[in-house]
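Researcher: We're teaching a course module on how sequence relates to structure. For the next exercise, students receive a sequence and then see the predicted structure as tokens, so they can try to spot secondary structure elements on their own. Here is the exercise chain.
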Amino acid sequence: MVVGGEAYHKLHPSSKHFLGKGLPLLIETVFGWTVSGKVSIDLPIVPRTCHLTTVDRFLESALQKFWELEAVESRSVHSVEETQCEELFSATTTRDSSGRYIVRLPLTRDPLIKLSESRTIAERRFLSHERQLERDPPTKDAYCIFTDEYAQMSHMKRLDDPVDDVNPHCYLPHHAVFKESSTTSKVRVVFDASCKTSSGFSINDKQLVGPVV
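Model: And here is the predicted structure for the students to work with:
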């Protein structure tokens, strides 16, 4: 073994001896003669295979999201409650000649969810809203026009007789929402079906939740 490449040429005098074409070369060194060259040896060829795998997490995630977005669902993705709501709606709801929905059965979720007294809070919120409208005459006028149209379209009607408390009913608080950017009606009425009755449940708690449409 020669350590130090700068001493390589100092070790070799000029003496070399060729044994012939395809045979080793004899080279004289200060340590003696060395043999160098190609040697033909018949050895079995064993193939070698090298595999390289790399993972690009960002690219993998992007491709996965792409295929998820492009995938077509082969089955319904509705929940049990959404499916039940769809089936019940189809079986119990029709339209009349004017296009209004007629529901023969309520779309109730759990029979144990009971609504209780609801007039007190609805009346209190109505009176509070009425005082606000008194301080804003333009909004009040628009609010009255909206409710009159609601009655003309038969979406609501006035009850002149006392309400029979024996039959289930619920009062919904409502208030006006003013939207200046609206191209149709600047004022619309929002009904608060999430308002809790005295039992702690609301109309929304009792309704089945259908799929997003």
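Model: If you want an answer key for the exercise: The mean pLDDT is 80. The helical segments are 57-70, 80-92, 119-134, 137-152, 203-206.
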